[in-house]
Amino acid sequence: MKLIRKEDGAGGKYMMDFLRKHVISRFDSKAGEIALSELDDSSDFNGYAFTTDSYVVSPPVFPGGSIGSLAVCGTANDLAVMGAKPAVMSMSLIVQDGFSVETLDRILDDMAEWLEKIDAKIITGDTKVVEANIGIAVNTTGIGLRNEHLEKNLSIVREYRSYPYSWVRDRGLAEGDAVIITGNIAEHAAAIMASREGFGFELDVESDVYPVWLFLKNALETGGITAMKDPTRGGIAAALNEIAEKSGVGILIEEEKIPIRDDVKSFCDVLGLDPLMMANEGKVVMGVVADLAEEVLKALKKAGQKDAAIVGYATSEFREVVIETTIGTRKIMPPPTADPIPRVC
Q1: Where are the beta strands (DSSP E) in the chain?
Q2: What are phi and psi for residue 68, nearest 5 degrees?
Q3: Domains of the chain (ranges plus CATH)?
């Protein structure tokens, strides 16, 4: 009897293969522009963006946040990278019998705090208490709204080329577009791993969990954004490869321009981890019309993303994601097969 493996839900190639074989083959459909099989961060119906996600992070409270922060920000971010303004959410809790009430209150307080900051509301939900050894799992489903920032961005992109989409899409990248990463990578996964009991490694880093709408609206208002991805499971390697594959272009990235803290890089080096494949919870990988890339970068920095950087560009020279190393050589950046660190989001 064939059994499901943790890699089948870890955000890499194995998960994509699993979804196409067992889920997409049965349920592929679309209610608007975006089909289920396109595997964008959100889909759409009747002019709304729509997404859902479940969170099983361990530990449930970690440096910089909690599973509650992840649930609100993660779902809001899947909407925001489509250009949608997060508006309403559902919340479902599955809680282990004997779970700490104090910890639950902390998790719910984090959710309430971030909902207030993005001006969104929980309007329905469900709670189950179970005997299974799960700690706590949280599901949030979100609906996002079209808005003036999205419309202005699309209008500006269309001044430069044809753009047939009504949302910012993974597949919107074109040859010559600049690629921006909005801040230091790998902080969420590093914070989770360093905080796990018995790990024995001191690292003064917090999760980057954050609702990206708070800065993306400024970037969209500047205009010229052609593609966006939320680089969670599988990190920027997964996000870049997905954008390249869907857009039918290659992407060349300069290694020295990728924003990463020195201590996080050293942490990854010691453990043999690739920071390019580690989860982020408050960053965006985006494509931008080349002529507007510097203006978008300025808007991001003005909105608080001081480490945002232009890291490369799209090309028709090849179809892979290629990284130019600090010593001048080039190598392919493959998509991850699975998340190297389990249960970080």
Answers
A1: 43-45, 48-55, 61-62, 65-66, 85-96, 121-130, 136-145, 178-181, 225-229, 250-254, 285-288, 309-315, 321-324, 330-332
A2: -70, -45
A3: 23-145 (3.30.1330.10), 148-332 (3.90.650.10)
- Which tokens go with 206? 């917090």
Gap between the Cα atoms of 256 and 268, Å rounded? 16
Q: What is the pLDDT along the chain (345 residues), one digit of tens a residue?
A: 888 888 877 777 788 889 899 999 999 999 999 999 999 999 999 999 999 999 999 899 999 999 999 999 999 999 999 999 999 999 999 999 999 999 999 999 999 999 999 999 999 999 999 998 999 999 999 999 999 999 999 999 999 999 999 999 999 999 999 999 999 999 999 999 888 755 666 788 999 999 999 999 999 999 999 999 999 989 999 999 999 999 999 999 999 999 999 999 999 998 889 999 999 999 999 999 999 999 999 999 999 999 999 999 999 999 999 999 989 899 999 988 876 666 677
